[in-house]
């Protein structure tokens, strides 16, 4: 298998035989983010087993999520789905009293064509709790795209901006029409349309980004999702929206098409370069000129020096499983790393357009060829390529991490990037902390030798590595 | 439809994958949507497996829903055949394929004509069986597949000349992600070497499917765990007349019983040959007295202190039953309730622990187990990871004795549960659980670790409170690690009540006040 080098940005597509988490895993971080929610995963033992094992200790902490486990009678329609769900939701209401119940549709509900979207409004009316439906199934989506389906469903529930606000603005403008200075002062606040950011981030990271925009005197009027379901932001005609994560293309589409919002296409605020580019895309929309951004970015890069020395010239291979890959690769290239391949489950070229452009620019700036982007990768082929390329670091799922380590390839478990705080200027260090950890460990153990810890098989029977 | 937060046994395909990935050079292909290959993560992380797990997925996506898998499954099988050249490929259905009802058997048939590997379709239904039952079935299916190809004339009549010369056994049911299975396997090897019995084969862990045809060469079969292997043993018994021993060699009493059964089997088969009869009684005696410390532990003062203490046991059928018997019969500990989540094996379980416990609980609902424990308030629990967490919540120590387990239950050190070394490990586990409980209890008596209301040192020394000689003496008798706490509590009470001189009475009053 030859390793190609590209001058321009191309996306190839492989077989889609790759390892990733099931998108229902999004409940693990969303139930913590949305404090008054309850997630009900309507699926089988297989889904439950995955959640139980993937989320480990969280299971024991009385989480606000549960399985509605389908049994044989549900599959063969001997039992009434509506009655079943009603019974469970009433119990959830009694035990937990959430402000919203989110049904997560799975592969099984897709195949048996359970009409969750049809049942939800009826049951919502009957029990008096909002019920959202998100089809986060493995037939259609990968890992973080689960959050995308939930947020897209949630966008529909965001209230319309209240009309009187605009009317009042008008009257104020009229009132002060004769006084130009006052009008200008007011304009900074009242005239600017509202900005809603979408993507679930830990609350302190969200406030860091809020603060970052406030420095440029831009007010963030809300987040989708908010800390509580009852605090969903107003969305509608004239509201600007901007994504903070690369996997939110359905949410973006919903916001544009259904809620008539204006999408600000920007690279994602991952790494100091990404954060700066993100702010630079937002500011002009509100007629604001950025202030001190360049110096701020410079300062952050300086503070990363010890880590940059460690990663410079090292090579990375992204096997691809969480859609953060392009943004992370772009950041790491800017850090001086060589990226061999960017595997990614799904590539929305429109939603990620600005990010892809920044990747291209970064490659030109750093004088490196643009890495190949492989959509729907094939893990088995990728492992062959890793064997040939011998990268310094493979960013991969847990299924491959230990076997690769045993073959002398340093790995970083990709899921950690999903749970770690990686957004904004302040968290750039955390990304490098993750990336350099295997490199630092390797350095610590350098003198021990024995980096390859598998029995070499000479027979043809095991061609892998 | 039922509300579930947690389950004891996984879905059926996990069982099949565990069997497939235990054998050498066997590849499993799941007919499953993206993300269902979570088994690979578990094996790679929990077992810290160095090799790539030989399981992959033939992905079910929208196209498959619309047009069926068509060539995809066959192509995937053939591709694996070419890439890895496995001896056997097992096509594994999941909950998704159970509903799609595609003719997977037909795909297998088509693929097997072209591929060099053998290809079979795992005969498990997601909605009928769980992980444990599926593993049992799949193992039997694989064994049957390879043995049914043998010439019929090998069977029955020629069995005698087919047997190994020296006494030998197969160990059936050691496999990947099993609870301490690797250590148990090593312990069984050692035991059998001591007894001068050869090991013909160990399946499925590390076994080769090509060798399965030699299974009937062994004199008899050992099934250490009831959950997986029994079906295979019964099949071999029916088709080849091979006897089997399904007692779990766990605990000193059952160990002796197990060895006696081996002795009986060996002696029955040596009747016609020139090999002399065996007598293991001397061996059992020596091991029980001196190699295993468990018998001595039962007599020691440590264990005496455990007399009559109450416990609850919960786990898979094998481990829960054995541990119940060990606690009740070998350590004189009272088992208030013993239970299992192996509902399919409830009858056997009840029969085993009859007379060793007060109550029996057969359920796979962890909430029911939790309620039962909360109600019984035992001094210690022996259960799965779930019970450990229930124990944490209720402040009751727990020893983990059965799957489902976390990564800490895959220790690097040698920790068998079976055999004579196993009795030592179990004794440690039991004693440590209780000892910890006692320590906690002592702390409680003297005021506990609770430091929510912080009182600085200066406060307690500068308050002008006077300890009279008696109370000072009393204070010095209190164990050092809780003395400060008692002092602080006493002075706190004294201040509250406006007492200036602290007497022994005040100390006791404080103990009462802060205990409730």
UniProtKB/TrEMBL annotation, chain A:
The keyword Oxidoreductase applies. InterPro entries: LIPOR_BchN/ChlN, Nase/OxRdtase_comp1, Protochl_reductN. GO terms for biological process: light-independent chlorophyll biosynthetic process; photosynthesis, dark reaction. [4Fe-4S] cluster binds at residues 22, 47, 107. One of its GO terms (molecular function) is 4 iron, 4 sulfur cluster binding. One of its GO terms (cellular component) is chloroplast. Component of the dark-operative protochlorophyllide reductase (DPOR) that uses Mg-ATP and reduced ferredoxin to reduce ring D of protochlorophyllide (Pchlide) to form chlorophyllide a (Chlide). This reaction is light-independent. The NB-protein (ChlN-ChlB) is the catalytic component of the complex. This is Light-independent protochlorophyllide reductase subunit N. It comes from Taxus brevifolia.
From TrEMBL, chain B:
The active site is at 302 (proton donor). It catalyses: chlorophyllide a + oxidized 2[4Fe-4S]-[ferredoxin] + 2 ADP + 2 phosphate = protochlorophyllide a + reduced 2[4Fe-4S]-[ferredoxin] + 2 ATP + 2 H2O. One of its GO terms (biological process) is light-independent chlorophyll biosynthetic process. Signal peptide: none annotated. Substrate binds at residues 437-438. Its main location: plastid. It holds the Pfam family PCP_red. Its EC number is 1.3.7.7. Residues 467-511 form the Light-independent protochlorophyllide reductase subunit B-like C-terminal domain. Transmembrane segments: none annotated. Component of the dark-operative protochlorophyllide reductase (DPOR) that uses Mg-ATP and reduced ferredoxin to reduce ring D of protochlorophyllide (Pchlide) to form chlorophyllide a (Chlide). This reaction is light-independent. The NB-protein (ChlN-ChlB) is the catalytic component of the complex. Protochlorophyllide reductase is composed of three subunits; ChlL, ChlN and ChlB. Forms a heterotetramer of two ChlB and two ChlN subunits. This is Light-independent protochlorophyllide reductase subunit B.
């Amino acid at each position: 298998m030859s390793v190609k080098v590209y001058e321009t940005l191309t996306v190839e597509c492989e077989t889609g035989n790759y390892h990733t988490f099931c998108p229902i895993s999004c409940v693990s971080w969303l139930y913590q983010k949305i404090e008054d929610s309850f997630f009900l995963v309507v699926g089988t033992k297989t889904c439950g087993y995955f959640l139980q094992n993937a989320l480990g200790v969280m299971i024991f902490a009385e989480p606000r999520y549960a399985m509605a486990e389908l049994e044989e009678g549900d599959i063969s329609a001997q039992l009434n789905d509506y009655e079943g769900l009603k019974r469970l939701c009433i119990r959830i209401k009694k035990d937990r009293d959430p402000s919203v119940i989110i049904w997560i549709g799975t592969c099984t509900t897709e195949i048996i064509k359970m009409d969750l979207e049809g049942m939800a409004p009826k049951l919502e009316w009957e029990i008096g709790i909002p019920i959202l439906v998100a089809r986060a199934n493995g037939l259609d989506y990968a890992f973080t795209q689960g959050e995308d389906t939930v947020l897209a469903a949630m966008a529909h529930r965001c209230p319309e901006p209240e009309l009187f606000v605009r009317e009042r603005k008008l009257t104020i403008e009229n009132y002060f029409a004769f006084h130009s200075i006052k009008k200008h002062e007011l304009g900074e606040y009242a005239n600017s349309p509202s900005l809603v950011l979408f993507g679930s981030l830990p609350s302190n990271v969200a406030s860091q980004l809020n603060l970052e925009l406030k420095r440029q005197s831009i007010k963030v009027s809300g987040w989708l999702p908010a800390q509580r379901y009852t605090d969903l932001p107003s969305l509608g005609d004239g509201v600007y929206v901007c994504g903070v994560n690369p996997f939110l293309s359905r949410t973006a589409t919903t916001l544009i098409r259904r809620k008539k919002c204006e999408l600000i296409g920007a690279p994602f605020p991952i790494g100091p370069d990404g954060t700066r580019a993100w702010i630079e895309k937002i500011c002009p929309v509100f007629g604001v000129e950025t202030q001190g951004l360049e110096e701020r970015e410079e300062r952050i890069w300086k503070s990363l020096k010890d880590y940059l020395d460690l990663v410079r010239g090292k090579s990375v291979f992204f096997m691809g499983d969480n859609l953060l890959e392009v943004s992370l690769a772009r950041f790491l290239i800017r850090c001086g790393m060589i990226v061999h391949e960017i595997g990614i489950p799904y590539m929305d070229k429109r939603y990620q357009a600005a990010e892809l452009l920044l990747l291209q620019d970064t490659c030109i700036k750093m004088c490196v060829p643009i890495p190949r982007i492989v959509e729907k990768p094939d893990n088995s082929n990728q492992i062959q390529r890793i064997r040939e390329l011998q990268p310094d670091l493979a960013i991969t799922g847990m299924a491959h991490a230990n076997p690769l380590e045993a073959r002398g390839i340093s790995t970083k478990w990709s899921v950690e990037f999903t749970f770690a705080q990686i957004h904004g200027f302040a968290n750039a260090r955390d990304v490098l902390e993750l990336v350099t950890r295997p490199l630092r460990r390797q350095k610590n153990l350098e003198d021990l030798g024995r980096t390859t810890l598998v029995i070499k098989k000479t027979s043809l029977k095991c061609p892998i590595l | 439809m039922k509300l579930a937060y947690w389950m004891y046994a996984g879905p059926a395909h996990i069982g099949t994958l565990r069997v497939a990935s235990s054998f050498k050079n066997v590849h499993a292909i799941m007919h499953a949507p993206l993300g269902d290959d979570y088994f690979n993560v578990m094996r790679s992380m929990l077992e810290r497996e160095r090799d790539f797990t030989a399981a992959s997925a033939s992905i079910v996506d929208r196209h498959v829903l619309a047009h069926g898998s068509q060539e995809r499954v066959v192509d995937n099988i053939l591709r694996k055949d070419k890439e890895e050249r496995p001896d056997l490929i097992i096509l594994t259905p999941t909950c998704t394929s159970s509903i799609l009802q595609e003719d997977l058997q037909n795909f297998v048939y088509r693929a097997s004509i072209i591929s060099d590997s053998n290809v079979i379709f795992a005969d498990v239904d997601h909605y009928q069986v769980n992980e444990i039952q599926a593993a049992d079935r799949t193992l039997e299916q694989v064994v049957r597949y390879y043995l049914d190809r043998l010439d019929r004339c090998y069977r029955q009549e020629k069995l005698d000349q087919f047997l190994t010369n020296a006494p030998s056994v197969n160990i059936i049911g050691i496999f990947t992600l099993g609870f301490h299975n690797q250590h148990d396997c090593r312990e069984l090897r050692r035991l059998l070497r001591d007894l001068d019995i050869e090991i013909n084969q160990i399946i499925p862990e590390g076994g080769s499917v090509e060798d399965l045809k030699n299974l009937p060469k062994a004199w008899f079969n050992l099934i250490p765990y009831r959950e997986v292997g029994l079906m295979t043993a019964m099949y071999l018994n029916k088709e080849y007349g091979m006897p089997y021993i399904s007692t779990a060699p766990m605990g000193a009493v059952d160990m002796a019983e197990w060895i006696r059964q081996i002795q009986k089997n060996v002696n029955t088969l040596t009747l016609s040959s020139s090999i002399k009869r065996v007598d293991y009684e001397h061996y059992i005696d020596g091991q029980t007295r001196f190699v295993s410390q468990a018998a001595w532990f039962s007599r020691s003062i440590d264990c005496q202190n455990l007399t009559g203490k109450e416990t609850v046991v919960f786990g898979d059928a094998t481990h829960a039953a054995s541990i119940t018997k060990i606690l009740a019969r070998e350590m004189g500990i009272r088992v208030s309730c013993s239970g299992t989540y192996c509902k399919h094996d409830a009858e056997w379980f009840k029969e085993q622990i009859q007379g060793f416990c007060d109550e029996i609980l057969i359920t796979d609902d962890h909430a029911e187990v939790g309620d039962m424990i909360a109600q019984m308030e035992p001094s210690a629990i022996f259960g799965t990871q779930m019970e450990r967490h229930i124990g944490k919540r209720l402040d009751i120590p727990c020893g983990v004795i059965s799957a489902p387990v976390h990564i800490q239950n895959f220790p690097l050190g040698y920790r068998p549960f079976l055999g004579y070394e196993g009795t030592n490990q179990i004794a440690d586990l039991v004693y440590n659980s209780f000892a910890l409980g006692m320590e906690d209890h002592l702390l409680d008596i003297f005021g506990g670790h609770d430091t929510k209301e912080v009182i600085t040192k200066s406060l307690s020394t500068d308050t002008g409170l006077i300890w009279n000689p008696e109370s000072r003496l009393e204070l010095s008798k209190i164990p050092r690690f809780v003395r400060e706490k008692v002092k602080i509590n006493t002075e706190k009470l004294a201040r509250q009540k406006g007492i200036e001189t602290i007497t022994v009475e005040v100390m006791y009053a404080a103990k009462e006040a802060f205990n409730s």
